[in-house]
Specification:
Isoleucyl-tRNA Synthetase, Domain 1, 2 domains, alpha/beta, Rossmann fold, about 50% helix, 4-stranded antiparallel sheet, elongated, about 450 residues
Length: about 450
């Protein structure tokens, strides 16, 4: 869901003429991955290599733009970048060492307070036991950034989207911040980035992983790319609601500690739920495999459902039954059927392809992306599809052309032009369908086979 949505924003910005650096990837350190690999009887590096390749394969499966950069936090450059980031924060006086006791959720890789637990368990990972930890760790002086974060939030009222998530993190910061542990004893947890100057400690997974947002830009060596896309750009982060604290408070404080500019926008997604409204997650085992969905329905069908039928910010259900119903109604019987009808009329009655002039995409379409409400952009496109259906029903150009060839031809040409504009608007949303429609218009041919087969 997050990869597809981020891909759409990247594509739209390119359409608007912006230079775009689009990054996704995998964070591969931490206790839970080491535990999973150990339980599977596999070397942890071999274990994460396998899953990283599966995630890398999503690029093609989900129709993600070819120039997306894929980063792994086990990449050598990222490791060096994370260590450099640590050194800067340490030099600036924001890292210290102490003994501590805490309750810890391995699923979240976060320390938990009693108020965050439900019946002694993490509400996000109820199937994992809370661990009691006591050891000497390095700590980040998070407590010194309360006022600075609130000032940052005041300066950028759209830093966190949607508003109700922004209000959540503001309340969290106003209630007071506690320093958090940023290392683990190597003797207890060996899988991670080694702390600079102390080989007995491994970096806390979040302190390492969050640095990927800038290490992917070649930071600290590649100052030109970093300056262009981060310092002077408008960096946008997509994440789930369980990452709200890490992305919008911890990471922003870390950037301040390293004297680096903050993020521009952080888009917080809701969860996808399965049957019965239970959160869909790998740890609960109730996921739907995107490879299976694409195999039967195609990439654009999956992108359509994610972009239009799932709420951009709230929790949303995804069931195969709901997916199939939407597919038939809006794709097979919607844009697919409309394309076939219009291009059949064009192929039958027009001697040559319609000349497509520079037809601008309506500005209203782009406004929805400024607020990251991609579902509303999809609704806008489908409203245009509905308008063409209405024109056909009201004018019946396939009949009119037999009695008034000039008027009938004029209507068909207008329909083809409007269909092409719809294809242009679909380009960042459902690229394959967009290209197929454009090819039909340019060749003045109806689709050889339906763009979307009814299931």
């Amino acid at each position: 869901m997050e990869i597809v949505r981020a891909d759409v924003i990247a594509r739209v910005k390119k359409l608007q003429g912006y230079d775009v650096f689009f990054n996704t990837g995998t964070d591969e350190h931490g206790q839970k991955l080491l535990t999973d690999a150990t339980n599977a009887g596999v070397d942890v590096k071999e274990y994460v290599d396998k899953y990283a390749e599966k995630f890398r394969g999503l690029k093609g499966l989900l129709g993600v733009t070819d120039d997306v950069h894929f980063i792994r936090t086990t990449d050598e450059h990222h490791i060096k970048s994370a260590q450099k980031f640590w050194e800067i924060c340490d030099k600036n006086g924001y890292i210290y060492k102490k003994n501590y006791n805490t309750k810890y959720c391995v699923g979240c890789e976060l320390a938990k307070t009693d108020s965050e637990l439900v019946d002694g368990k993490c509400p996000v990972h109820p199937n994992k036991e809370i661990e009691l930890r006591e050891e000497e760790n390095y700590f980040f002086k998070f407590s010194e950034f309360g006022d600075k974060l609130l000032e940052l939030y005041e300066k950028n009222p759209t830093l966190v989207i949607p508003d109700f998530r922004f209000n959540e993190i503001k309340s969290f910061v106003k209630n007071g911040l506690e320093d958090f542990s940023i290392s683990r004893l190597k003797s207890k947890m060996s899988w991670g980035v080694e702390v600079p100057g102390d080989s007995e400690h491994i970096m806390y997974v979040w302190f390492d992983a969050l640095v990927n947002y800038i290490s992917t830009l070649g930071w600290p060596e590649d100052t030109e790319t970093f300056t262009k896309f981060w310092a002077e750009g408008t960096p946008v982060q997509y994440c789930g609601k369980d990452n709200l604290r890490q992305q919008s408070a911890m990471w922003q404080a870390m950037l301040l500690a390293a004297d680096l500019p903050p993020t521009h926008n952080i888009i917080i997604n809701g969860f996808i739920s399965g049957d019965g409204g239970v959160k869909m997650s790998k740890s609960l085992g109730n996921v739907i495999n995107p490879y299976d969905v694409v195999s039967e329905y195609g990439t654009d069908a999956l992108r359509y459902f994610v972009l239009r039928e799932l709420s951009p910010f709230e929790d949303s259900p995804f069931t195969i039954e709901r997916f199939k119903e939407s597919y038939n109604a809006n794709l097979a019987n919607g844009i697919g059927n409309l394309t076939s009808r219009i291009m059949k009329m064009a192929e039958t009655n027009l001697a040559e392809p319609v000349v497509i002039e520079e037809n601008k995409i309506p500005e209203e379409y782009f406004k929805f992306f400024e607020t990251f409400e991609i579902n509303k952009a999809m609704d806008f496109v489908w409203s245009k599809i509905g308008e063409l259906d209405t024109i056909i029903q009201q004018t019946e150009p396939f009949k009119l052309i037999k009695t008034d060839k000039e008027k009938g031809t004029e209507i068909i040409i207008d329909l083809v032009k409007k269909l092409y504009t719809i294809a242009r608007m679909l380009n960042p949303l459902m690229t394959d369908a967009s290209n197929k429609i454009k090819a039909c218009v340019k060749a003045n041919k109806s689709p050889v086979s339906p763009i979307f087969l009814r299931k």
